[in-house]
């Protein structure tokens, strides 16, 4: 008599299990019909219509877990990719507090942004030398619109909720930045992720964060520097000359964003306080130099809190392009007087432990006359400020080693701040300069020497800049411009001239005051982009190397970096070496968009293009910092 009862019970249980299976996570089933969700790392760059790859270092599809790891005082990033079969309105992504050994509050430590796409109409990088790029004529993620206004007191919605429009492709990326506070205990943390449509939950996931036992320093040990032309200020409708307070209310937010990403920006002379305007200088740039701008009271969250920049540009105009003029005595006296005035103020404010450059001549030329003029200029600055206090920055498309054979052109003993482009940066020649206390940077070039900085370049390309600095023990890198964008459509066409084939050249910041161009509410501050995040990642990679050096593991850092970057800079050019051109000829080629090389075809990168290799490199470095345990 018990058997029929058991059969009945089994039937009831089976029906219950079947019903449970049908009803299990109805939101997930509905989401499958509307959206698919996947996680990506910070080096993948997926077009609007691109295939979404697996990203096993970051995403566990079975458990819907987005996995990150970080040291304290580090910002790490990942992406969520939402793909739709048809247009979807009112999509949002919500991330809660990270809970583990302690609580890392989502506000202000997790920043979520909508990835805005640009149609790269012409991006073939046919310059210096022509470099391999991702295909153009596609929609690439670039500008990051924060879900909430980070500047307004009400933190109004900006980038979310958002609509997914599928006309140009099914994908919509969401960028996630996570800053790990310095006091966060090591361990594993988790936060819920919820995807909603019109307020209704459609999918869920988990953000998992492993906090390591090491802490990135507040001070930087590799330099990142960019010139700011002030175009973004124009879009915000502010000017230092018209209203210094309104200007600084906007300008300081650009400074803070740069600091959050571990690099420095400096306004071109005339865009902010100038030599002699010391009250205004101290109220503005003084906060950058002493670190008081980077505090909680000033609305700052991120690395380098209460820490001033360790180098800065002296307030001299970059007045000469393509040649060093024959300075007369009156001009040299003006530079001497200006240098004395500036250095007197620097010492009075106790900023004299910092390094100061003078960007007065751009691509001076490589002949004897140029050397003589540069020498006179440096001597004039030394006469006013003292030797070594303000150093003329030398930029060029010429390998300085090629000038050293002739005493009339040899720049050793004249230049103390070397900044050739990446394809002319000769580490064998410049390493001794750095050991003598001089500064060595590089600026943009192309494959195979350094990564390119175009929008239609992979997420690895700009990461290489910081890693190359560690690979060759170079002090840093230089951006000739960071906001020199199109005057009419800055959100859609980041090009400083209409026919530039380097889509994004001269631009790293976007003006929040022009979000209306893409149908979103304006904000009173800057917008970041995917390329800025890649640049930050490389600068942080360098700091991993620096931390390993403090543990007497520099050789391990060298080995791991060299694995992904076997060769770069002039070493990657082989026997052909870099092209040589005079400064004036280089300037003309730049204006015409011509290459500074006789290279034929398109050069490929000399580093690993496998994102997994880069992710593994960082995991290996973190494991060594944690004591060399299992990776």
Describe what this molecule looks like in 3D.
A hairpin with a 4-residue loop joins strand 2 and strand 3 (65-72). The chain has 15 helices and 25 strands. The longest helix has 22 residues, at 2-23. It starts with a helix and ends in a 6-residue tail after the last helix. The model is unreliable at 1-31, 575-582 and 589-599 (pLDDT under 50). An eight-stranded parallel sheet has the order 15-14-23-22-21-20-18-16. Helix 11 (463-472) runs parallel beside helix 12 (530-550) and helix 12 (530-550) runs antiparallel to helix 13 (554-564). With 631 residues, the chain is an alpha/beta fold. The chain has helices spanning 2-23, 26-34, 106-109, 231-236, 244-260, 278-283, 285-290, 329-348, 368-385, 427-435, 463-472, 530-550, 554-564, 583-592, 611-625, and strands at 35-40, 59-60, 65-72, 75-84, 88-95, 98-99, 103-104, 110-120, 138-146, 162-164, 171-179, 187-197, 200-215, 223-228, 264-267, 311-313, 320-321, 355-358, 361-362, 390-396, 417-420, 439-443, 476-479, 510-511, 526-527.
Spatial arrangement of strands, main beta sheet: 15-14-23-22-21-20-18-16
Largest β sheet strand count, sense and barrel closure: 8 strands, parallel
Report strand %.
15-25%
- Helical amount among residues, as a percent range? 25-40%
How many beta-strand runs? 25
Q: Could you say which overall geometry the principal axes of the C-alpha atoms support? A: globular
Termini separation: 60 Å
How many separate helices?
Answer: 15
Mean pLDDT across residues: 91
**Spans with pLDDT under 50 lasting ≥5 residues?**
1-31, 575-582, 589-599
Structural class computed from helices and strand pairing: alpha/beta
Radius of gyration: 26 Å
